[in-house]
Amino acid sequence: MKNKVRWLIFCLLWLSGVAQAQLKFVSGVVKEADGTPLMGVSVVVRGTASAKGVITDVDGKYQLKVLAGSTLDFSTIGFRSVSKLVPKINAAEITMNVVLPEEEICFYPAPPEEKMIALGIEKTSNIPYKIEAFTQKYISQGQSDNALSSLDGMVAGLNVQRTALGVGERRVMMRGMRSLFSDNNVLYVIDGVPYDQPSDLNPEDIKEVRVLMGASASALYGASAANGVVLIQTQKPQNRDIRVRLSSSLQFENAYDLPQMQNTYGNEAGQYTSWGRKLSTPSSFDAKDFFRTGYQAMTAVNLSGGSISNRTYASVGALQTKGVVPNTAYNRYNIWVRNVNELLNEDIVLDLTGGYTHQFQRNQVGHGIASNPIAGLYLYPRGENFAQERYFERYDPAAGYAKQYWYAGSGTADTPADMGENIQNPYWVAYRNVRPESKDRYFLSSKLFFNISNRLSLTTRFSLDNSYYKHEDRHYASTLPAYAGENGYYASEKESTQQQYADAILKYVSTIYGHLQFTTYAGAIYQATAQNREGYGGNLLSPNKFNIANITPSQLRALPNHLDYQQKNGAAFLLAEVWWKYIQLTASGRADFSLSHPYASSKAVISPSVGLSTSLLRMFDLDIKYLLNAKVWAFYTEVAAPLRYKGWNERIFLPEKLQPERTRSYEAGISTSWLNDQVGLNAAVYRTLTSNQLVPTAMPYGSVYTYQWAQAGEVENQGIELSAIYRNNSSLFRYRLALNATANRNKITQLGTEQVLNDYFRLREGDQIGDLYDTNGKRLGSTNPDWLFGLKGAMTYKNWDFDFWIKARLGGEVLSDTERYLDRYGVSQASATARDTENDLLGIPAPYYFQHKPTEKYVYEATNLRLQRLALTYHFNKISMIKGFRDFSLSLIADNVLMLYNKAPFDPELVSGTGTYEAGYDLFMLPSVRSYGLKVNFQF
């Protein structure tokens, strides 16, 4: 018996020695290209479910034990990731020193080893679709009111447009418009959790943004991601001494690109239109005098640090904005805290995040005439003195309060002040038709990682996202009767949104035989959304006392957009990745279930996808001079989800069971690298087909229903995306140029009815979403561009950085109702030019002609070319000017710098809102603004 025990002990010791012989003690130093040690670099062993690793210390040193033949991934913020193979040699200790090149800030498809996150899943393999990545350094060069503004024109297939509201929201669309009536904007995901309205975030809290192109790249997210996904990773706490970073910027804004207006012909007494005699002295009216210099002031402070096992990141940020229109404002205040706690040698990792955002905005100008000072400003009669309108109110002793003073708009009983548009003093609209809005948002998220074994791990996540919104309308007494009663008008609306999200993802990694490997992810998702909106309004009982109790009881009305909506969805998914040498196969399936909607089908909604990618050089064993890499990929996916529409009421007829809207997507592409990775050339083609779309059709006269929804709509999109990059990374002067181009065509292949009317936008089978029509149904053009181009340049010389962005659009048309009104009121430059010739137009008097011009005369070419952004930065970090400072940089920045070519009377890229039909149409929109300013960054 003793001999057996001794023999067993000997075998165990021998096996242990064999295992220990395979382990290598690896150490080294990680440095920058100039030899400066890099602290805080993540050194991770690839291929393990737990992704174990270490962090470099203050001298850039690291050490760890790892199996021979393993791959170590070195990564940190601001530098490109590097991978190193641990050699299989007899030595027990191995030294591996690494140099990390500086992060490229240009756009191009992510390299094969680049990480991608979908539902929090990290991949380091060849990704079978296109993905673009941007670091925090690049994102912070955009405007402070929205972190995504820096992506404008930088990604092929992604169109980012600023809204006429001036601050906050952007219209972000990817690869065209797919849905006839639903949202066409992309899905935003923050740290693996869906998160709408990214303008609520502080840009300094963002570590990285990744753009997943099209439905193929976002199959695991379901139909909500059919328009593409923008992944946002927030800053992670670092394992180091506490560091503090301060960022402050101040940007000024000025309105520009206003319509061309005349000052030579005035108005008749008592009339608002300027069809009177020629003025002996041209009017001094200048619309720019109404606009003021706006500004954006942003300050953010964050700290990060802690031990190896417990690290914390915390930040506060404040943004204060004054718009170019008087009495407009937008303020945002952020608090963000993130803590990472690692237990049991990193086998358990708890990641907690909490955020709070408070927003306040006042009088954000969209478009239209009501509550918009732009209408009264542009149409102001040229025979009057605009300076007197600045004193927009006069005290009335009899009434006991100040009333609107509107000399030019007073008119007479026989000659009304305007032509029925109910135009008011622009200053009165700005200061006495006040629309304050506030929003409070609370975000809590937890992520728990369990490393079950070297091959198996489990990740769970849970988040709460609650928003509370309040909007008020305050119209003071003496506002025109079209907008308020004698004593004024008040309305108050409140909205709350509660969102819950939970998931659990199991990951298994295995090597079947030799070069054949696979990774499997299986998971379940739960999402719940509850929205409530209600409001009341009416004319006031006592003048200028703005509260619900002061509304005249007989005038009190519920606001029309009341909403009480709840949605619960569940989903299960499976993702498998199989590698064989140089080929990767990716397949996934997702099943969605509606847990609450009475009109949805009770069956599971299945969304499958499959993709294939490979390296051509490795596949065919090619050795082509100058060609470093050539990756090709192809992908097919279907995405669908249970019904989510929330506009049902008793006047709409619905089928008994509605099928899910489904998008089928086909994509193929190639990514190449030339001349030792100095040149990159990339191309992708795609086609999507979105079917089962709800289309409203009229019901027969006398029916109890107004109209019915029929699932008859189908839209096709197809396009091509091209990009090229050149890098010159010499030691002294480095520069990078990146060019992208994209073309998309959409077509309504099925509609189920002759046409659907929507003002100037009509839907007809065979035409496009975004086509323009006149009132007689004549097609005037399309607001969709033929091509979009973007060019970015980045140059570095010693401590200087210089960046520029150029953006271009080719093709498409826009419609300006602003110009129509300028013509009708005789204030456009074209109306003065016609009168100067002393000839009638086509035998028609000028006033009649310009007041009855057909709609097609107000359609303009949308082609434009602009210098979008400039940034000049000096880094003081190489010079020890102040003891204790680790980094100090100063930047001069400018946005929307110069319009190089534009034939339209307004900025064609400016949109009135984020909706599908809010682009390409102008009705007294706020003009474009040009911003310029200074930004300072400190780290100590």
UniProtKB/TrEMBL annotation:
| Keywords on record | Cell outer membrane, Ion transport, Iron, Iron transport, Membrane, Receptor, Signal, TonB box, Transmembrane, Transmembrane beta strand, Transport
Q: Which residues form the signal peptide?
A: 1-21
Q: Which SUPFAM superfamilies match?
A: Carboxypeptidase regulatory domain-like (SSF49464), Porins (SSF56935)
The record's subcellular location field reads: Cell outer membrane
What Pfam families has UniProt attached to this entry?
CarbopepD_reg_2, Plug
Q: Which residues form the TonB-dependent receptor plug domain?
A: 125-229
| UniProt membrane topology term | Multi-pass membrane protein
Principal location class = membrane
Q: What is stated as this protein's family in its record?
A: Belongs to the TonB-dependent receptor family.
Record's protein name:
TonB-dependent SusC/RagA subfamily outer membrane receptor
